[in-house]
Design a protein that fits this description.
Layout lengths: L5 H19 L4 H19 L21 E9 L5 H11 L4 E4 L1 H6 L1 H9 L3 E4 L13 H19 L5 E2 L10 H8 L2 E2 L4 E2 L8 H9 L7 E5 L12 H15 L3 E3 L1 H21 L10 H7 L1
Parallel strand pairs: 1-2, 1-7, 1-8, 2-3, 4-5, 6-7
Helix pairs in contact: 1-2, 3-9, 6-7, 8-9
Amino acid sequence: MWRPSRAIGASIALHAAAVGLLCVRPAWWPLLLSAVVANHALLTFAVLSPRSRLLGPNLSRLPAGAGEAVGLTFDDGPDPAVTPRVLDILARAGVTASFFCIGIRARAHPTLVQAIAAAGHSVENHSLTHPLGFASRMPPGLRREVGGAQMILTSLAGRPARFFRAPFGFRSPALDFVLARAGLRHVAWTRRGYDTVCRDPAVVLRRLLRGLAAGDILLLHDGNGARTVQGDPVVLEVLPALLAALAARRLRPMSLPDAIDGAAAAEGCAARTRASGADASMSAADCPARIGNE
């Protein structure tokens, strides 16, 4: 059952109260209007803040139980010129990632979506058409974007997407309601390299690695990506170096389902161990390693 966030609930209550008070105290209209305008300013700030939780749950970091995992995500694909090469790089490194696919692109390149899923990566929802005005849409328009993509991606990947990322990271105040009805969880990111606009792979890599820590969710693009001065997709130069840097730091890039399901399993294992009294100091992050040694 969907429950509005505190900010959305307060906004609904404010608007209802303003209408009621205006009916009995018309002279208060300047004060009531100021309150409504301030409320809309706050909502606009939330819409334009990709990592904000004012509009509802928003995953921008992995759960603590994920240990040394880092969420690796790609947006705006699939792209026939880029996605297969990204998959090759990931396969050579032996890591998984999450691909947030645009519905109409997935429909145009079904074999790429199937290849993503077959390689063990997760196919996630990035809207049907990636519209510029996504954040201004009301529930009917949001349902078309979310539900339309979900139908296409489910049929191609063989399982429904579990996560949704709003186009450009900008969420409509009504999006949380639509996602709850669709069984989807909104995902933002911890850090990004701006590989859609920056043509210098070194700069993109530096942005991704600056302050990088376990639990971060990284955003790259296998669609709509910038090109180097030589005309090559920036992501294809950044990704091998990024994976090497993660390995050197003993961080494990993973798809979101792998990381989150692993964290949940670790938390459950640690809870059972603590309940049994075997090792009260054991943490969720230690549990998988402990099991592997038994």
